[in-house]
Q: What sequence folds into this?
């Protein structure tokens, strides 16, 4: 469980959120939505303890993330940003193996159990047959699955993703959202920002809406009217 407690956020001189609070329970999928510039990415980065809020706290099972070491935070939250890894000749398996970094020694040596975790992560996203493929040879949708596998290999209870369906074709957007929903049934708590309301709404448990510097968490079935008004659907 992750809780945002009275978070205030600003970007440069612009206020984004004021005293926002929400709790995301174990095994739930939440889409974070808002108009362009509402602060979705900024909120995700603060919630993942990548950036610090102006005030307020983020807690996981009662632990204040910003008082924990980087290694401990890496055992609690994995973050998939908008950047796609496109390094020439870098194998997909090696990208996923980066998720084991918090658990390996200072040389990054992989033990047999780490290798198995990487294999399991690739299988979980349907990419086990791509393990030896170069990451720069993949489509955008395939690359996104590899990035999700990397987060799975990190073995955190919470996964946050910033616009995981951006720049994907429509069928792949729905596939990624369904994949995220499947992972929550394994007990993961997943929060992702998105503009793809049609793909997210059918599979999400909750919709978190940023509007007028406020954050409101709705059960997905109750959010449809709010989304229609916000986006004029």
A:
């Amino acid at each position: 469980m992750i809780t945002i407690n009275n978070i205030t956020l600003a970007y440069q001189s612009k206020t984004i959120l004021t005293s926002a609070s929400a709790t995301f329970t174990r095994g739930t999928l939440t889409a974070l939505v808002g108009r362009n510039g509402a602060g979705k990415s900024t909120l995700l980065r603060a919630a993942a303890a990548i950036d610090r809020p102006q005030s307020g706290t983020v807690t996981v099972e009662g632990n204040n993330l910003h008082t924990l070491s980087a290694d401990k935070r890496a055992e609690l939250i994995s973050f998939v940003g908008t950047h796609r890894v496109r390094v020439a000749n870098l194998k997909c398996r090696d990208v996923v193996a980066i998720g084991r970094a918090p658990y390996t020694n200072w040389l990054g040596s992989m033990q047999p159990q780490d290798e198995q975790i990487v294999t399991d992560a690739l299988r979980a996203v349907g990419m086990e047959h791509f393990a030896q493929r170069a990451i720069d040879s993949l489509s955008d949708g395939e690359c996104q699955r590899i990035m999700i596998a990397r987060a799975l290999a990190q073995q955190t209870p919470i996964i946050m993703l910033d616009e995981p369906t951006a720049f994907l074709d429509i069928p792949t957007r729905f596939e990624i959202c369904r994949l995220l929903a499947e992972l929550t049934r394994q007990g993961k708590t997943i929060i992702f920002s998105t503009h793809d309301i049609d793909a997210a709404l059918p599979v999400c448990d909750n919709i978190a809406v940023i509007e007028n510097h406020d954050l409101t968490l709705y059960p997905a079935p109750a959010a449809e009217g709010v989304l229609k008004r916000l986006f004029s659907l």
Residues 85-155 form one domain. The radius of gyration is 17 Å. The chain has a mean pLDDT of 89. The first helix runs from residue 40 to 47.
